[in-house]
Amino acid sequence: MRTSNDNRGFSLIELMVVLVVFGLMVAATIPSTTRFARTGRLMGAARVLAADVHQARAIASMRRRSYEITFASGRYAIVRTSPRETLRVREMPYQVTMSATDTATFFPWGVTSPITVTLTGPGQTRTVQIRATGSVQL
Length: 138
Fold this sequence. Notes:
Blueprint: H1 12-63, E1 67-71, E2 75-80, E3 85-91, E4 97-100, E5 104-106, E6 115-121, E7 124-130, E8 136-137
Antiparallel strand pairs: 1-2, 1-5, 2-3, 4-6, 6-7, 7-8
């Protein structure tokens, strides 16, 4: 007669050890993931702002009217100056604020006054410089 001690599966101790190791690995990756998400929000907001600046400049040139980008703490708007009409309002992502030195006005011939927009997130800052030619530097 043959007796076998055929235990299939895992013991409770083995399962607990695996769960503890898995929990430690997850806990170690949370700070880097959070930092990555914050940086992504800030850089994404800067890229969207740069694209909107290019669009406002192109619209002003194409339609032969003056357009401006007005800045507030948590948003900005692309506005036709005469007659006044808002084309787009863009909200900043969560925890991203901005401040600008002035309003960016785009004339039909493509020139604007140079301004600097500062985007601020938790522990980070990015600047977007709008040059007199309408080009953008991040």
